[in-house]
Amino acid sequence: MRLDKYLCDALGATRKEATKIIKSGDVTVDDVVQKSGSFKVGDGSIVEWQEREIRKPGPRYIMLFKPDGFVCSHEDGFNHTAFVLLDEVKMEDLHFAGRLDVDTTGLVLITDDGKWSHRITSPKHKCEKTYRVWLVDPIEADYIEKFAQGIELRNEKEATLPATLEIVDEDEKEVLLTITEGKYHQVKRMFAALGNKVEHLHRERIGEILLDESLEPGEYRYLTEDEINSVWK
User: Fold this and answer.
1) Is a pLDDT exceeding 80 seen at residue 89?
2) 196 and 132 share a domain?
3) Which site among 3, 26, 120, 220 is 20 to 30 Å from 15 CA-CA?
4) What is the CATH classification number for the domain harbouring 139?
């Protein structure tokens, strides 16, 4: 595909605007500056504008390190939406493949592929999510067994599905919890049902996708092919 056509598709720019962007010298293809709109962009080439990778329209799969204070929705009257952290075109096409509460940090997946996100969020697929949990009080000896059996939550007809609890620190106030559901405030409610309180919650994993350790809060990157395909396993 011609470079100018690529920019038109990726940025929603006119041909005239794309030509101006290319001539500015801010566009690289595979780390080489290109100033000709007729330059042919290969299928595997990486196109960057002002040192930011841009991609032509198509399914997008994004990993975001969500900070505290941001909501996973397009609009909110009280808090910032996590979408303001993205520098993407056609933001209205994107949605969250599993949300986090405003005060929960960590891994959030964003896409415009509905079938892919359904694979993550649909209860029947039982996609695992791992959270690092900091508690007010140390866990008690029977916590691990109770989480494995399922916990009765207030206003729920059935107990939660079996979950895996792992102690992280000697004080027994920091744990890793892996669940396969996504009930409203589920992690906080599970510990509350046992008389404990979550002080902070951080999601580290969804399925086989781990939060990239190189990302700082508020940063994001595109998923790799292996990460994208892991959802279908």
Assistant:
1) no
2) yes
3) 220
4) 3.30.70.1560
Tell me the pLDDT tens digit for each residue of 208-229. Answer: 999 999 999 999 999 999 999 9
Please state the domain count of the chain. 3
- Shared domain for 109 and 159, answered yes or no, is no
Q: What is the CATH number of the domain that holds 222?
A: 3.30.70.580
- Which band of pLDDT confidence, cut at 50, 70 and 90, is reported for residue 125? very high
Indicate if 30 belongs to the active site. no
- Quote the pLDDT of residue 79: 84
Q: Output the pTM of the full model.
A: 0.81
* Domain extent for 92: 58-126+214-232
Of 101, 103, 137, 212, the active-site residue reads: 101
- Listed residue (103, 112, 66) closest to 85, CA to CA: 66
